[in-house]
Specification:
alpha+beta, Pnp Oxidase, Chain A, seven-stranded antiparallel beta sheet, three-stranded antiparallel beta sheet, 4 helices
Length: 219
Amino acid sequence: MAAAAVRYLRSAGAPKTTGPVEPLPRPDLRAVGDDERAPVDPAEFRRVLGNFATGVTVVTSPAAPVEMESEGGPTDYVVPASPVSPAGPAGFACQSFSSLSLEPPLIAFMVARTSTTWPRIARAGVFCVNVLGAHQGDLCRRFAVSGSDKFAGVEYDAAPVSGSPRLTGAPAWIDCTIHAVHTGGDHLIVVGRVDALGTSDGDDAPLLFHRGRFGRFTS
């Protein structure tokens, strides 16, 4: 039956994609209401789902244009990056990341609707997913904390298409354009279309997250 289904899908043809899909309007950044809550204890939910081991990424985006008023009217320009500047590059630690589609090449990540970093990534319209190695636990912790200059002292270069920060030492990176945004409860599901990707020269083990702790893969 599986083979027949594959033959049918191939004969029917894959949906044609002519370009990026216009993102949906960004929902209000709020948690779910009391009338939306399921009868599941949040602590138990985290405990059980924590048994699913994941990799860890840092999603970054370049400085986005900032609209400023001038004597001649609004002007779009990029303010040079400064400590904790909203005009500088943005980034956050993300374990809710997954590949999504091969044709076209799509990936997805989930971000809380209360995130203060997401609006900056949405404004940029592009991002880079940095897959962290086992030696980058401290780097992950840096990007998991809000209200500080996450990029201070962090080495990176520009991803080839988006210009998003590509963190030095990351085993792999995926350079993307925002393709679509969907609401998923108290999170947003961000779909990215892959423009470029690659790996580092080394053979680094991945950074893993399991039951609230970092770990590494061993064979």
